[in-house]
Structures are given as C-alpha cells and as structure tokens.
Amino acid sequence: MPESYPNAHRADTVETLHGHEVHDPYRWLEDPSDPACAAWSREQDHLAESWLRGLPRREEIADRLDALLRTGSVSAPVWRGGRSFFTRRESDQEFPVLFVREPTGVVRRLLDVTELDPSGLTTLDRWSPSLEGDRLAYQISSGGDEESLLHVLDVSTGELLEGPIDRCRYSSVAWLPGGEEFYYVRRISPERVPEDERQFHRRVWRHRVDSDPDEDVLIHGERLHHTYFYSVSLSPDSRWLLVHGSPGTARRDSLWIADLEREEDVPELRRVLDDEQGAQATARVEPDGRMYVRTTLGAPRGRLCVADPARPEPADWTELVPEDADSVLESARWVDEPGAGPRLAVLHTAHAVSELSLHDADTGRCIGEVPLPGTGQVTALNTVDELTEGPRDRLWLGWTDFATPPCVYSYSVGTGELELVEHAPGREAVPEITSTQVSYESADGTTVRMFLLAPSTPPRRPLPTLLTGYGGFALSREPAYTPSALAWVSAGGVWALPSLRGGAEEGEQWHRAGMRENKQRVFDDFHAAAEYLVDRGWTTPEQLAISGGSNGGLLVGAALTQRPELYRAVVCSAPLLDMVRYEKFLLGRLWSEEYGSADCPEELEWLLSYSPYHHVGEGTEYPAVLFSVFESDSRVDPMHARKMCAALQYATSAPPDKSPVLLRRETEVGHSARSVSRTVGMATDHLAFLAEATGLLRK
Question: How many domains would you assign to the chain?
Fold first, then answer.
C-alpha cells in the first residue's frame, strides 16, 4: 500500500442554499469525461486492484463463493394454454435460461441470453407468454443499462416474430386473446421531451405484433406527471383492463379499470383510486368475475377487499380479509377446490417471515394454514390458468430461505399436501448454519428485529461479524438464499440483518417511520444493532464489518461518518452519498418523496443533517472503506462514491496500510443483474477486504 493516496485537488466550491453554506470541494469528480476525473479514476483503479489482489486467502473465498453460487436456481412455473414457463440455472450457467414444458411433459429450452450474446453482457429482464401460450414477449438489455428492448417469438418454432422495440424499461405486457395484440408500457420519443427527462414520460399503448410501434394506439398517461410508472393486466376472460400507476417510487397508487366489451379503439379508463389518497392498491379480476383489491387504504399493514368491476370505487368495496396487527398482507390468489368452492390463498409476512393461509372466497373466513418448509420467503404464488386442462386446486410456490437456493413447491388445496417438485441443481454445496431472529431496542425505545446467522458449531465468541441492512423505499429484507452470508459464516463469522425502519417489514407505518424527516431513525436502528452485537458478546468494534448497496450504501455511509469508532471496515456499493445534489443525476428526482428535496428549505435541513459527504471530518480515524461503483449504472450515479472516496482519503487519520479507502470500478455492468462470474468477482473482493480487516481468516 502506498504511503499516500492519488492526489485530488480540493476546489473552493461553496453554494449558499436557503441560508446554508454548502461546501463541495470535489464537484469536479461529478463529470467522468473531465480529463482530471478520468486520470484520478485510473489511479484509483490501480490502487484498488493492487490492494485487493494482494489480500491473503482471496482464492479460498472465491472458491467458496463460486460453489455457493453454482447451486443454481429454478422459478415457479407460469401456466398459459396448457404450457408452463419457468427459468432454471444449472450449476455451470452464468444466467437463468427460460424453458417451456409442453402439455405432453416435454421440456424445451426456449430462451438463453448467452446464446444471444456470448459476451455475458446481456440480461433477460422480463418475459410474458400470451394467453394461449404460443407467443412470448421478452425484454433484454445489455451492459447493465436496463434499457429493455422488447421482442416477440413463436413458442413452438423459436422464430423471432418482432423486435427490438426500444424504450420499454420496466414495462409489463398484457396479451389480448389470439396473441396478435397486447397492451404495454413504453416511453415516448426522446425528441419530444427535455434532455433531462428522457428516462421518464411513460405511456400505456396497444400494439399489434409486427407493426410499427410508433403507430401504436395511445391508451393512457398523456396528462399525468412525467415521473409516473405504469403496469397493465387483463382479467382471465380479457374483459377488464387494469392500469396501475404511481409517481416515481412514491407509495401512492392510482388505479384505473376499463371494460373492453365496449370494443372502443381507446377504452374508457375509469379511475378507482387516486394517488392523492396516499394509499397503495393492487387489483386483480379473478376467474369468478370479481375484482380483488389488496390495499393499504385505511390499513397500513394491508387488507383484502372485493368489488364488482362495474362498480369498482372504494365506497363499493367489501372487506374480505381485514388488517392483521402482527403481519403484513403481501398478496392473494384465487384457487378452486373441487367440491368445496373457491378459496383464496393469502400470503402474509410476520416480521419478514412468510405465512400462507386459505380463506373462503365468499366470506373471507380463514379455513386453515398452508404448511411452509420453514422460516423463509414465498417468492411466487401461481395458479393454473383457465386454458390449461387438469386439476385447478394447486398452488405453485417459489421458495427460499437463508440456506435454501430458490426452489419450487406444489400445494394441493384439496388434500392439504405440500410437495417439493423441483430443487436447485447443486444444493449440496450449502453449509450447515444456525438462523435465529432476535429483538433489540433502538435509540428511541422502538423494538427492532434482526436475523442472525452463525456456524452450527460456533467457536468461542467474540467473532468477526458482518452487519448489513437497507431501510428504505418500503423494501423488506426477508430470508433469502445469500451466498455471501453463507461464505462468511462458513469461514467462522456471524452475519446479521436487522429489519430497519424505512423498510416494510412491519407495514407502511414502519416505512414512514424511516423516511424524509425521520431518516435518522434508520441509522439509529443500525447503530443499535451494532451495539447489541457488541454488548451481547457476539463481536467487538475491531471485528465488526458493515456493508450495504444503493440506499443501503447511504446507510453504511451515514454509519461510518456518524460512528466511525463502532465499525472496523465498510463495503459501500453503488451508494447515494451527496444528498444535496442526488436529484440532479440519473433517476434521483424520483426519490424526493423518500428523502426530501434540497429545493425546499426545511427538507434541505433534513438532508444536510446526515448527508455522508458533508459529514466527513478532517483528522478522524475512519474505518477501512471499499467503495464499489458500476460505470453503466443508470439509477445511482458513480459520482457519489468518487466524491466521498476523495473526501475520506483526504480527511482520514488512519494509516492507509491499516484502514485503506479504496474505489473499485466496473464497466459494462449496472445496478442490478449480472453474470455469476462477475458476481463471484465482486463478492470475493468485498468479503476478502472485510475478512482481512476483521481477522476472519487469520490463523
């Protein structure tokens, strides 16, 4: 390790915002095309590579991670017209492959992105079979940009019927009968909008296969805010079109419904719910012809209501499953039980753990619990479609937990039997661990729950411990197969995941308790988790590492600046760190509802109170920090990590050989999906960095 870091000049850049002097000495690092920024980045590349490649026992960590990721995975089937569609990743594959199972039982490979692009840079983003199961709409993107291109292929022949259609990022597809047309979501032409709004302005369209997409029929979205996201779905009989929408990432939904029996070119969409009502709502019209609505309207933990689609407004809803005080309603599916009538399979999470129950579809009365394999997560809940012959009383469940790679179970409503129908190909690589859920108090006395993973026969405490979390956007961190956690624990460490406020593990109120002016509570919850681990003897500050990505990168960035003495090492991946200027980059403007906006005087004060970049203190002994950024990230700009890295390298009093501050960059990869090989490479660098700092692999 060199005695000093690459030189980064500190400019005298100061802005006065609403009476606050805001210093920004590294603003020049916002522009990657600036020669000075590019040169500094190359020096950081060399520094990080030389340090990371020299870490002891790095290959051992890589081998362990590779084995854990090579378990593969399989998804729950989606049924259309007698065919079932599912993804499966074998042990030697970089990406999941889409398969189709014919009514005869024959399984065929349908779509493999590595055949489309052997470079490994293309990912399968979404896919949707037609109602008859004879056509497939799929979306792919390349280089991590998530700019999905939509294609249509013939399921029987594999022939490409159409594509690519561009500007389909985050688009759902709702097929009409016959497979000739579908509804979907596409951004309008970039020439029609300001340059800084080209990632927005989505619309709902009706498209005929193999026609010019620029001639599509506009269905919805013309007069709504440009940040609106939409999804589309159809009832099983294709009579009812449902459009869901929300402004950006705000948890405020709008819902519209249209009766397609009227055979209008542009169906009249009737508003069911307005985002100004401040609630979420997800609706489905099921085979019985009724509309089922899962909503937080009047119920922060969610309730299930039913209505006639012809009278869809909340005043005409009938509550079937009321809000539960101890769990969060996640979803519900209609399923028929021969001889007994229709049932509802209702999925809740209790403190982030899945629970599944059966209810009478007419009264909502609970008639029994569905036994699940353990403490884990139901990732999908599917049923057979109306065009598929055979028993209709089955539920198809995607399942995972901390030690179980994604697999599939089938549950018979009639017999009450739960059956494992397909497991991941290489599950023998998973080590034995113990998993527990504990409770602790945060700074304001709030009870927070936390998952702890430890070796099944742990050595004497204290142990090197890796604490991670998220705490934002109402995203729940539930038990799921996590190779990096298993690798850490199998090496003798402890891995911890608290259910921080800002997530939705305890419902929408839990989310709101950690957003906007309440954001500091999320960091307090995280610090309290660390103190619990130290006070209970699990670890010490010298053995405690933390990691987080995206909003979780903001979390650990705030943690290391607020309590540098509590943490030994930090991995901060694709983070938000300059909270004064985050809205000016990429998708940042979508997140002001979550964090607040620097344009508002009061909200600027919230942001400045914790913005990690603005709380780096000169002469402070900071922990070892590894920033990870992705140059093709289209959500969080790498400028956050560049500026924070320069600030910490300048300010820290810790010697570089003990607590280095490094910046790890990747190109042609983005915020989300990546190949197995690249996942192994990144996770190896992260774990080796933390293991060296905390002494995990020292003998």
Answer: 1
